[in-house]
Amino acid sequence: MAPNEHGASPAAAGEPEIPPAAEAGTGTAGQTGAAAAAAEASGTLLATFSDQLARAVELVSESVVRVEARRRQPASGVVWTAAEGSALVVMADHALERDEDITLGLPDGRTAAAAVVGRDPGTDLALLRAQAGGLKPIERGPAPKIGQLALVVARPGHAPAASIGVVSALGGPAQTWRGGRLEGVIWTDAALYPGFSGAPLVDAAGRMVGLVTSQFGRGAGLAVSLETVGRVVGTLVSHGRIKRGFLGIQSQRVELSEALRSRTGVAQESGLLIVGVERGGPAERGGVLIGDVLVALDGHTVQRTDDLLGLLGGERIGQPATLRVIRGGELREVQVIVGERE
């Protein structure tokens, strides 16, 4: 023991002597014990969480079927409703390459024939009726929130498959390039492997919040909202298809020069150049010409194809519409009767 400034050791001065080894060991042992307890608690939480996700996948897989309706990779489908001896299955329309000879692979290993009830390419949704009993409809959940956990549970083969991510973003309403309207879209970073289109996007409790599709995501994971799925399914059950209006034109977006905008009084920066007019169609009967630039329909600005598609809902079929076009540098109005897209 080293002496103090007065030449006496601490013990001699009446101060308690603490063994260095014991002093250091007490702190280290406490820290080590706390770290071990924290690690054990963390491991327990992760194990519990992992088990919960596995149970959710198992639960959801009881309502997911394999759809064999194209030449290559099968797709997935969701049991929407079920009755004695039959069930309605919703899937991605782009994965339905034929209307006959459709086979479903069921969760219990059976196979069943299915028939097309209706399809809507605009929202990439199709509805099948399965000739099988004992199927379990999927549980539907509340609208998702950004940042919440998301699972995709598919059946690309005989066994279920899953991927995990989060809800990255929410959007909508949106108009698709195929003319459909999506009340809501859900973006997720969960991987969409081959055969995952038509699978449900579910929350951690195994409740469906959307139906995934690779058709509109442009490489990213996108799911159609339950609101859209429910609306389309209801219409397909009643009518077998979604009615949409059409004009019978082919068009492409074109920029409007500042001089042209100044001369015509049009404020928008672009419109749709008419590059084709269908013979006998509504536009031809109304007097639309190739070379016209469509800038508005019934007072609603049209700058891109999505704008026009959004204005041609089923309620417009058979109704008059006023097209505002630029022709020969002048603004004109053309009257047409909206037709029905076949």
Shape: flat
Any idea of the CATH class of the largest domain?
A: Mainly Beta
* Cross-sheet strand order for the largest sheet: 1-2-3-6-5-4
Low-confidence stretches: 1-16, 21-25
Helical element count? Answer: 5
The overall strand count is: 22
Provide the helix percentage: 10-25%
Gyration radius over CA:
31 Å
Beta-strand fraction estimate: 35-45%
**From the coordinates shown, what is the CATH architecture of the largest domain?**
Beta Barrel
Can you tell me about this structure?
The protein has 342 residues and is an alpha+beta fold. The protein has 2 domains: 43-242, Thrombin, subunit H (Beta Barrel), CATH 2.40.10.120; 245-340, PDZ domain (Pdz3 Domain), CATH 2.30.42.10. Helix content is 22%, strand content 36%. The protein contains 5 helices and 22 strands. It has helices at 20-61, 226-239, 258-264, 282-286, 305-310, and strands spanning 64-68, 75-83, 86-92, 102-105, 111-120, 125-130, 149-154, 161-171, 174-175, 181-182, 185-188, 200-202, 208-213, 221-225, 245-246, 249-255, 270-277, 293-297, 300-301, 320-327, 330-337, 339-340. The protein has a 6-stranded antiparallel beta barrel with strand order 1-2-3-6-5-4. The longest helix is centred in the first third of the chain and has 42 residues, at 20-61. The chain is flat and about 85 Å long. The protein starts with 19 loop residues before the first helix and ends with a strand. The model is unreliable at 1-16 and 21-25 (pLDDT under 50).
